[in-house]
Amino acid sequence: MDPQGGSPAEAALAWQRAAKARERADRNFTIARRYEQLALDTADPLHIRLAHLHRTTGNRHQVAAELLQSHARRAGRWIRDGGPPPLFMTGVAEVCGTASVAVTLIDAEQNQLATASSDQPSRGAQDLEYVLGEGPARDAVLARGPVDVSGDGLASRWPGYGPAVMELGIEKVVAVPLEVPGECIGALAVFDPQPESASATLFTQVADALTRSVFLGCDAIPGFFGGIDYRAEVHQAAGMVAGRLNCRVADALELVKARAFSDGRPIADVARDIVHGQLKLG
Predict the structure, then answer these.
(1) Does the first or last residue of the chain, that is N or C, have fewer Cβ atoms within 10 Å of its Cβ?
(2) Residue 105 contacts residue 186 (beta carbons within 8 Å)
(3) pTM: predicted TM-score of the whole model, two decimal places
(4) Domain range list for the chain
């Protein structure tokens, strides 16, 4: 299995899952139309709720199909032409009308568990948010709703993150939470979307499809999300620094973050140097 999620078998599986997602979407839309007509005829609140439920579920499966098809097309081109294997997140970016998106998964204490991004700018923006402790994904999780900031508003809202992310060439970000019933498990951040695509409604539908179909639901494909960073090496480095300096791991992690920010380097690179004995802090 290719670590980037682009093997021929996975491309074929993506097409199969996409077709099934389309079938589920069509089925739910058909049921939704039936209940919508009943709602018009009877004004029964139950029919209205059921129509909304099936319409929302249909939208979720439709977007999941688009995500899977986008990845399958890229995987097919990779199989034919060679080059770097495709990232699934690149297809997510395509559906969102941009080149740059990032997903952050968190635990109950808001700690980052895993991250995935589509390109270098989104990876850099995600790194900045992790290092500085402020930014769109964090705010979307805390608010349990969309965050939409652009231009000078970036620096006004996030005094550290805003200017730094603008130095990456990013001028606009929209973030929406990744939610399951009763819980928020992370956020999707979309950077510099095209004006015609910059809709929190679309991004919320993409987040819903990712969370409830592609990540955790019936369209999940084992090993599909190559390129995920589980921050394991960062936490290993923090543990080593804590042991050497006799301090709390949380304090050591802040030292690692501060060093990455001051050096202008990805935190994963700083952590790797610490783990391999090439860098000592304190």
Answers:
(1) C
(2) yes
(3) 0.82
(4) 8-89, 94-215, 232-275
